[in-house]
Amino acid sequence: MSGEQVTYATAGVDTEAGDKAVELMKDAVRATHGPQVLGGVGGFAGLYDASALLGYRKPLLATSTDGVGTKVAIAQALDLHDTIGFDLVGMVVDDIVVVGAKPLFMTDYIACGRVVPERIAGIVRGIAAACAVAGTALVGGETAEHPGLLGPDEYDVAGAATGVVEADSLLGPERVRAGDVLLALGSSGLHSNGYSLVRKVVSVAGWSLDRHVDELGRTLGEELLEPTRVYASDCLALAERAGVAGLHAYSHVTGGGLASNVARVLPQGLVADIDRGGWTLPPIFSLVQRLGQVPWTDLEGTLNLGVGMVAIVAADAVDGVLAHATELGLPAWELGTVRHTDPTTDVVGAPGFVAGTKGVHGGAVQVSGAYRA
């Protein structure tokens, strides 16, 4: 026996710092609470009054969980932590919106090597701000201190959300038809996918995050930390105005890139044709490709390439949806069309042909052409 007295503090856990972090974040969290949220911050469980669901004919609950991935390494390197919450919320609630569900409430989880109250509060303030944009209540969360497992300035974040959609308003592959049109909703940048690839490219190139890049108009670090666009409220507004007869499905373009995520929301027997010449790549994507000599197949299978969400709409609804997107300040353009599969030309393994992704054996996507210079 060494005779050394061991306490929780000497083991690396500071409960007082955790309490201070809660005090610093409470106002931001409360700002997301409407009358449906019961109780205050700090309870064992978040309570949400679900009485509104009694007004539904057949309410379906939708749920999603996700994290931010290695983008947190950029936030940690720059010591800027109040935007990473937008990445977390966007990754979670915008998966729920894909089926037409309104995200009702969300919880978060932060694991860190050491609780720095101001840093934790900054992360949560960002989560709360993004929840406000999405119209979602932040009803609870957890901060866990893991000394020895994570470095003192390391952390990771995750979250989960629950939403609701009327059964007869459910969006998805069952509504998609040949002749439908794909509309791209522009991303704000890299969002929160593919950062392992991007960080490797930056490392191999030997570029620092404080390097000013003329084609980006700012430093590399500022570009890489650009928050994910949160689509939830805008997508719900587009769907409500167009109706289920006009707006048939959404695809959230996250890990796996554009084609693989669109294929997930198409039924068997249908193919979406996407022409790369339909839009100009934002500079960050061209920069990553050039800087790392990344094969285009890797780039397209990893990053969103400027398209963060895709709406699949009836042909006669295109003009209305695009006009409404403009009203909402959401960049949108025609991306492609849906057709029946041609077994003589649509062959798995052919250049640009994508099918059977994410374990979903549905439709397929054919990407062709070249991006605008």
UniProtKB/TrEMBL annotation:
Q: Which residues form the PurM-like N-terminal domain?
A: 60-165
SUPFAM superfamilies, alphabetically?
PurM C-terminal domain-like, PurM N-terminal domain-like
Q: Which coarse location class describes where this protein primarily resides?
A: cytoplasm
Give the transmembrane region(s): none
Q: What class of enzyme is it?
A: ligase
Q: Sorted alphabetically, which keywords does the UniProt record give?
A: ATP-binding, Cytoplasm, Ligase, Nucleotide-binding, Purine biosynthesis
* Gene Ontology BP annotations: 'de novo' IMP biosynthetic process; adenine biosynthetic process
Q: Which GO terms describe its cellular component?
A: cytosol
Q: Which GO terms describe its molecular function?
A: ATP binding; phosphoribosylamine-glycine ligase activity; phosphoribosylformylglycinamidine cyclo-ligase activity
Which pathway does it take part in?
Purine metabolism; IMP biosynthesis via de novo pathway; 5-amino-1-(5-phospho-D-ribosyl)imidazole from N(2)-formyl-N(1)-(5-phospho-D-ribosyl)glycinamide: step 2/2
Identify the residues that the record assigns to the PurM-like C-terminal domain, covering every copy.
Answer: 177-341
Q: What is its EC number?
A: 6.3.3.1
Recorded catalytic activity of this chain's protein = 2-formamido-N(1)-(5-O-phospho-beta-D-ribosyl)acetamidine + ATP = 5-amino-1-(5-phospho-beta-D-ribosyl)imidazole + ADP + phosphate + H(+)
**Subcellular localization:** Cytoplasm
Name the family: Belongs to the AIR synthase family.
Q: State the protein's name.
A: Phosphoribosylformylglycinamidine cyclo-ligase
Q: Which organism is it from?
A: Cellulomonas terrae
